[in-house]
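ugh ok fine here u go
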Amino acid sequence: MRQLAAFSLKRRITVLVLLATALVIGAVSTASVPVELFPQGFESPFLSLFIPWRDAPPQEVLEKIVEPLEEELSTVRGVERITSVARTGRARFFVRFKQGTDMDVAYREVRDRIERARRIFPADVDRVFTFKDDASGIPVFVMGVAVDPTILDSYNLIQKSIVLPLERIDGVASVQVNGLEEKEILIELDRDRAEASNLNIYAIAQDLGSDNFTMASGKVREGSKKLLLRSMARYENLEALRNRLVGPGVRLKDIAKITYEEADKDY
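structure:
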């Protein structure tokens, strides 16, 4: 220790030069070396896709987007697992690849399969977002939202006012909501009452499904604007659904219990 102190006193210019060099190297490193959770070269074997589709119900999203794209993605080399979610107005895909897969090649193949599937997508599905998941995809912000119990549909309110605006921000890969489930209409048919009215419950289910749909109906150009047309058939409220005739003099509410409640949670 004394030798170091003696050297510093005798070689003051040398010590100052070494100190200045260390400060310069530190400043350059701070400005140029990126801060990363994992070392450069580490590749996460995940890709995620997000496909918005305006106000389409989950069943139609499943049939028109999820199933065709899943079939195409399953042909990509190295795919280990595909997880998909169909929600109102959007579809999500999470693709896991085998360890050692070249993710740059996998990304290009996934984009190729997306272009193939787009040929049979509805005409008004115009954007597909693809994200490479890496260490930076770990949540960087967690927020809590207090829900007013008097609000009937807090899930959709949060989706429209918080989730969708955040997902549109450049650089945001995904926003997840935990603790709330989307509400759905639950129809519990009473088999005995239906049979007493000489009604087939399977035919009723098919008729109800055909009553509620949305579909693309083409495009109309107005000057430089392109307007997308959509045919829609849906019930305006629960009362209209309850009063729907399902047989001669028989309404749906006479043979079924109809409620609007949160869906069962997935575990």
